[in-house]
């Protein structure tokens, strides 16, 4: 034992000078270890609790001022978001914007400070914010008023933030239930035929035809909780609600926040003054602590029961598929392998049937294998955010690298560029600046491309050894029935994963296009696992059936079987567009389907890769345990 250990240690020390990288790794480890000893806990930005107290008790660790931030405005009738100042609302003189992350830049998030300033636990009533004047004789002011009316007609929504919490608007609906949304409309519109649209149904005073009603007043209610039992002066905010109102302030110097609503006739040709006001009050909540302060957002989200129904439905499908796979694996395949391995005489080998007959062709490289390899490389990148290249025999790794690195990213980048041009033309805040586009391109060129090259190079160095040899002459495939044709298998293989996920897709599309909050990430993770299992089992089942029919063209079929779910996903996005959205303009339609096509392409690569490798491992396993002469 000791001599062995001494010999091993001597060899390691001899190798030490030849491995200079180990010196760097050791130095880095020591540096990190020393830094870890000096580490202190910290809060992520936006998650750190903020202490509030009254103005006369303000300290460096306890704030008295409560700031309100405004985000971009969006609509379910248009996918074009706009910045807050685009609609000529009141603006903060010392405008401040928090630092934006990459996601906010790509999706057009424009969070800025507002002129709404509150003092903690101080009730204020009918406070003037600003006055906006419009003269239709002035071309610039007329454009601003027309754009404001267009925003009301398209039901654009404000999105306000207090202490990193969304300010929600709750209203009563049928059945004495409350419906809450993290946004509230600019106003509402009554058509020429007298039909009250959107929020105009909440007030009977909104009844004049061809009239716009502007919500120029908000009643804000902020709830707080006293966190420290020893120091009751410190509090933390736990919720923020508002109720939009419309008041026609006749005298801006004597505001009462009562009276008739703020009307803007559809054919207005005179001067117009709009006074924006607010009222704020603070309420103490002794039950809801700051750790659960997001619970108020869930008041109008009864979808939990629907989510559990979706999970149970998906589990039933998984149990059915798992039973089929277990039956095939434990009974049929095991029985086949046992029978094949018990053949002792040449005449017995001539009686081979089923999937063993195609053992000499099952690993024959497919047609267009370069394209399939590129799809699989992109799919693996989507799946685990890393790189891999399947080394098909005869595939040139350099060409493979170029296809994997350029094919799908260039399609997505071209799509994004076209959509960004439309956003630039429309003046939307979602338009990505030229500098941001260059930054995204640099990230792709400096991170994704080198990693893909490294993966292709490493893959080209290894050689995959098939468990069985490949015949020189391809075997003739028998005539297949309609139910064993590739198209039928893809239709069946794609509908099962889609059936497990379409309810979750509905909520995801609602969060993207209907601007509803999505917080059920636990359900999403469960559905993701279910999707992986369903894609794998459905592909393995159909792959086995086709091999038993002596059809060894499984490579592309395995990829398309599970990736056909993307076709159902695209059909569902079309259905959602027709039934749930009210988009009418061409620009919004192009942007919707352009974004949907990117999502469909990602699902196509992801699900196809999962199905392919499941089938690949299954075939490799069963042919590695069968005796072949």
Question: How would you describe this protein?
Answer:
It comes from Camelus bactrianus. This is Transmembrane 9 superfamily member 2-like isoform X2. By secondary structure, this protein is an alpha+beta fold. The chain contains 14 helices and 18 strands. The chain has helices spanning 2-15, 20-37, 102-107, 139-153, 304-341, 346-349, 369-384, 397-426, 434-461, 486-513, 521-548, 555-563, 565-579, 586-624, and strands at 65-70, 73-75, 78-82, 112-119, 124-135, 157-158, 160-162, 165-166, 168-173, 177-181, 184-185, 187-190, 196-197, 211-214, 217-226, 235-245, 263-265, 271-284. The strands form five sheets. It has a six-stranded mixed beta sheet with strand order 5-18-15-16-9-10. It has a four-stranded antiparallel beta sheet with strand order 4-1-7-8, with no helix packed on it. The longest helix is centred in the C-terminal third of the chain and has 39 residues, at 586-624. The protein is elongated and about 95 Å long. The two termini are 45 Å apart. The relative contact order is 0.09. Mean pLDDT is 75; it is low at 1-46 and 384-395.
